[in-house]
Write a structure and sequence with these properties.
single chain, eight-stranded parallel β-barrel, TIM Barrel, alpha/beta
Length: about 375
């Protein structure tokens, strides 16, 4: 038993790994992490960019692929190979949990974040290409992504809705899931239990943006400036995520949900993403220890997993002080922090960051292809 096992078995939260490297697959490291209690894997364009650029283990495959296909197609061939290997490693977890866990997430191209039809087509293609029950296709929860995920849920597809930064957008994602399931049932589906989803609520970046705004409002930082305003730093991300959990609990109760649950529907679990601490002044497990609760996922990079195994505190915290969480958001509004604008800015930054990583990787691969030709 490790703290990761304790987290799942006694608190109902699934610890996932937010990283993937081919060396981990070939060398058995991912299998070792699963043995320690990891129950899923998430990936994104930045993760794959770092993995492919930091090592030469892809070079031989890449050299063979570009003889018959474009650089873009070669990238997807390499990524799909890694995802399929990870899916095989996690398949026993998926089976032993009766399909509740053991998922691996693969994101559609970041260029599609503002393209509803393109996101739908790309998600369908990935599901068809990787026909595994424990695959979650990631689709950003942008304004264009929300109608896309509703369509995909209406087709009975399993989706990881990513890049959620605000409570308003989270509400739209929940509604897309519920109405999508209803459409799937209206289309003739009698068993909804095969549709799985997580809603990936990004955490640490919220504090980064809000703290910057608080320091600007206070007229300074590090004790210089309005102490009341500065005293709100480092509190927003956890408070907003805890209120998101409150809304999750409310959304998945009542007559509407009961009708779907009677047909086998499963809750769309909140997934806490971006949970490594960005500010060195904050505890390294701030976004882990403070967000533990049933029917949730926390996806962590390996160093955060290691910290949790070493000195994490396993106790239910996600709804321990909801009054305090609401007070934090009330105080932020009072001093002039617009959380809707914060969410919009962070969404734009997230989309841009993933697109930048993807474009830079394709350029790097193009340069490598030209050198090999």
């Amino acid at each position: 038993m490790t703290k990761l096992h304790d987290l799942y078995e006694n608190q109902g939260q699934s610890p996932w790994l937010d990283d993937l490297h081919r060396e981990w697959l070939a060398g058995g490291h991912l299998q070792d992490l699963v043995g320690q209690g990891v129950r899923g894997v998430t990936s994104n364009p930045t993760i794959f960019a770092k993995a492919i650029e930091a090592t030469d283990v892809y070079d031989e495959q890449f050299r063979g692929l570009i003889r018959s296909m474009s650089v873009d197609d070669a990238y997807w061939e390499m990524v799909v190979d890694d995802i399929e290997d990870a899916l095989s490693v996690l398949r026993p977890v998926h089976q032993s949990s009766d399909g509740a866990d053991g998922f691996v997430s693969l994101e559609v191209s970041p260029s599609l974040a503002n393209d509803t039809a393109g996101s739908v087509a790309a998600a369908r293609a990935l599901h068809q290409r990787i026909d595994r029950p424990n695959l979650l296709v990631k689709v950003p929860g942008t304004a264009a992504g929300v109608p896309a995920i509703r369509t995909l849920f209406g087709e009975g597809r399993s989706i990881n809705v990513t890049l959620i930064f605000s409570l308003t957008r989270y509400g739209e994602v929940i509604e897309a899931y519920l109405s999508g399931l209803e459409a799937y049932a209206d289309g003739g589906a009698t068993d909804l239990s095969g549709v799985h989803s997580v809603a990936s609520f990004f955490v640490s970046r919220v504090d980064t943006e809000v703290d910057r705004r608080l320091e600007a409002l206070a007229g300074g930082a590090d004790g210089v400036g309005d102490p009341e305003v500065l005293g709100l730093r480092g509190k927003t991300a956890v408070a907003q995520a805890q209120i998101a959990y409150e809304r999750f609990a409310k959304a998945f109760t009542g007559p509407r949900w009961d009708a779907l649950r009677a047909k086998g529907a499963l809750v769309q679990r909140p997934l806490w993403a971006s949970t490594s601490t960005k500010n060195p002044r904050y505890p390294d497990l701030l976004y882990v220890d403070s967000l533990i609760g049933p029917d949730t996922v926390n996806t962590m990079p390996e160093h955060t997993l290691d910290a949790l195994l070493d000195h994490g505190t396993i106790a239910r915290t996600v709804d321990a002080d909801l009054r305090g969480a609401h007070q934090v958001l009330d105080d932020l509004a009072r001093v002039g922090i617009d959380m809707e604008d914060v969410g919009d800015v962070l969404e734009d930054q997230g989309v841009s960051a993933f697109a930048k990583s993807f474009d830079e990787l394709l350029q790097s691969l193009t340069d490598k292809a030209n050198a090999l030709s």
